């Protein structure tokens, strides 16, 4: 019986850590299905005709975007002939150290992202959640002069509350647009939950066999 108890504890500890792992998404449709109800920040109407300077931070809704070098701008979609059709947030040749701070903890967030120019060393984005997980994303080729308007998408759905996200933008020209966030957890299928049911069933079968013996 001691062996069975040990097995159950070990299994539960392993499943517990699996349950805390966030799910990530590279398409908005899949993210929307998993995240459920979210609020959306588009930055539309903030750029004016030629762009607006926001410096070290900009707050929209329940979200504050921070910039260590005070180089945040909201630019119109036609800026730099990037091919975008609406206003967007831009880290314009600024700090690599950016952040997202939520007024209330969230359980999901997603955004369109890319880069205008590659001012810094390379073209990548490193995100670290307040819950400890990190993700490395490629920003792709810069959009200035391309007219392509091609942004990527990244989204996270977690069963652990997220209070902030720290970001390292090596391009120092990152774009953020259509930022969605959800304040309540949504039930989504996960490997951890399935593993828990399988593990408990397995332990139950062992107990039943021992009793019959």
Provide a compact summary of the structure:
This protein is an alpha+beta fold.
The number of distinct helices, counting runs of at least 4 residues, comes to: 3
In whole angstroms, the N-to-C terminal distance is: 13 Å
Quickly count the domains: 1
CATH architecture: Sandwich
Low-pLDDT runs of 5+ residues are: 7-19, 190-201, 203-208
Mean pLDDT: 85
The CATH topology annotation reads as Jelly Rolls
Structural class: alpha+beta
Q: Could you name the CATH class?
A: Mainly Beta
The overall strand count is 12
The residue fraction in helices comes out at 10-25%
Largest sheet: 12 strands, antiparallel
Evaluate the radius of gyration: 22 Å
Which strand-content bin applies to the residues? 35-45%
Question: Which outline best applies?
Answer: globular
SSE order in H/E notation? HEHEEEEEEEEEEEH
């Amino acid at each position: 019986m001691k062996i069975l108890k040990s097995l159950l504890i070990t299994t539960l500890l392993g499943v517990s850590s699996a349950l805390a792992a966030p799910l990530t998404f590279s398409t908005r449709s899949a993210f929307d299905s998993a995240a459920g109800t979210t609020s959306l920040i588009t930055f539309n109407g903030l750029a004016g005709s030629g762009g607006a300077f926001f410096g070290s931070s900009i707050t929209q809704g329940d979200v504050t975007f921070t910039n260590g070098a005070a180089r945040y701008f909201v630019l119109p979609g036609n800026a730099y002939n990037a091919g975008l059709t609406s206003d967007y947030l831009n880290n314009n040749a600024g700090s690599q150290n950016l952040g997202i701070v939520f007024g209330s903890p969230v359980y999901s967030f997603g955004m369109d992202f890319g880069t205008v120019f590659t001012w810094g060393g390379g073209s990548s984005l490193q995100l670290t959640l307040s819950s400890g997980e990190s993700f490395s994303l490629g920003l792709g080729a810069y959009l200035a002069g391309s007219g392509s308007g091609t942004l990527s998408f990244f989204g996270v759905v977690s069963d652990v509350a997220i209070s902030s996200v720290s970001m390292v933008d090596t391009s120092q020209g990152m774009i953020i647009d259509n930022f969605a966030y959800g304040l309540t957890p949504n039930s989504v299928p996960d490997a951890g939950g399935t593993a828990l049911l399988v593990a408990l069933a397995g332990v139950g079968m062992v107990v039943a066999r021992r009793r019959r013996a």
